[in-house]
Amino acid sequence: MTTLPPLCMTRPKLTALARQKLPCSPRTIPRSQLIKEKDDIDHYLEVNFKGLSKEEVAAYRNSYKKNICVDMLRDGYHKSFTELFALMEKWDALREAAKVRSLFWLQRPLEEQPDKLDHFYYYLTRAEAAERKEYFEEVYNNLYALACYFNNSEDKWVRNHFYERCFEIAQLIKIDGGKKEAEAHAHMGLLFEEDGQLLEAAEHYEAFHQLTQGRIWKDETGRVLNLLACESLLRTYRLLSDKMLENKEYKQAIRILIKASEIAKEGNDKKMEEEASYYLGLAHLAAGEYETALAVLNTYANISADLDDDLSLGRAYEATAKVLQSQGQMAEAVKYLKKMVKIARKKFQSLDFVRASTMLGDIYNEKGYYNKASEYFQQAFDTTAELTNIPLMDETKVHYGIAKAHQMMLTINSYIESADLTSLDCLLSWKENRSDIAPDPTIGGSRRSTMESLYQTSEFSEEPRGFPDNQKKKT
């Protein structure tokens, strides 16, 4: 939010007098008390201030809001009065509606906020005076100042009103090469984006981008407007593509994300280009275009490496692993996931570590390597327990439990297939206490021997690298 300096205004006569008696009397005062106060004021003025004009007496009797309106009319600012009066009516209507919905609603009425009324009077009248002289740039500046002043969660609808007024006036400014019009499109894009109307927001951001191409214009904070236009478009296109992917409109999502990638390259910002490549790769994955997804994600990984952005590189490895999993290339997927685990451990990204460990556990569990699956699931579970993330902890606990059950199933099957007294004793002992059952190395069952042989020669034979001490299997 832009912070405006305090107004140094010369107030009209009525407003200056009324300002001296603030804060105003609340509207809920009983009528009998108001009549008594009026009589007291009349008596006080008659005794102490003989010779006061009717206007001066009115300044003390009327509310500050009413005096602002009277001053506007008396000074000839009829358009300002009409606009302010409409805003005040909407303000009261919104207050009443909010009051009905919320028991803890605390917004004050406008007449109890004289600073806001002062800003209305000061900037609206200046804008109207400039509009009479067709100084449209000055009109824009005054209306934009009001939009900045009301840029807060409570008064955002007032800000949006002045954004719309700025957009109308910006069309009339012809002396700045279109800079004000570009800014107005940016404000309107933000207005629609916050309201969830993404298509309308994209239209305004596209106009903003087109008007700033080849320009070195900057905003009040020194940021290049064309770069802001690119960022705004990328953000809106991504939100649009998310909705399209939810509706399985894959071609439209890919088309709009390709457009986003082109805009990112045009903006000559590697970070934006990196982000655009990531979401485009995910869209190709969702559409089942695996080879294209791998190529785009490889570009994303290369940019992340050039930027020395390990966190984004970890995301690239995760997405690539998902593509390889979809293609059935489990060995390659495991390699990428282990790289992701290494980065997550290095950067203390616990949630990334949990996701990668869970994916590795799923792969090993699906292929029947339950010892490895249990190891990875346990590390995921231990990490979520440290985070006290209850929903995620419950999820990883289920995965870990299933893998442990599969692991025990292999051992029990081996004992059953062995069919000797030692194996029978182990099974009976386990049935009595139901504790964890450890594999007996003396058992030579065919299934166990076969599984061990497969484990040694399979594509998953690579041992996992070391994990943090606090994430090792507890004994």
Protein model, in words:
- This protein has 475 residues and is mainly α.
- The chain contains 21 helices and no strands.
- α4 packs parallel to α6 and α16 runs antiparallel to α17.
- The longest helix is centred in the C-terminal third of the chain and has 29 residues.
- It is elongated, with a radius of gyration of 35 Å.
- It is found in: Cytoplasm.
- This is Tetratricopeptide repeat protein 29.
- One of its GO terms (biological process) is cilium organization.
- It comes from Phocoena sinus.
- Keywords: Cytoplasm, Repeat, TPR repeat.
> What overall form do the CA principal axes indicate?
elongated
Sequence stretches where pLDDT stays below 50 over 5 or more residues: 23-27, 440-459, 461-475
Helix content: over 70%
Helix-strand string: HHHHHHHHHHHHHHHHHHHHH
Can you summarize the main beta sheet?
none
Strand content: under 5%
Main structural class? mainly alpha
Q: What's the pLDDT, averaged over the residues?
A: 82
What is the number of helices? 21
Distance from N terminus to C terminus (CA atoms, Å) equals 55 Å
Radius of gyration using CA atoms only: 35 Å
What is the number of E strands? 0
TPR repeats: 354-387
Main location: cytoplasm
InterPro entries: Bac_ResReg_Asp_Phosphatase (IPR051476), TPR-like_helical_dom_sf (IPR011990), TPR_rpt (IPR019734)
Biased composition (Basic and acidic residues): 462-475
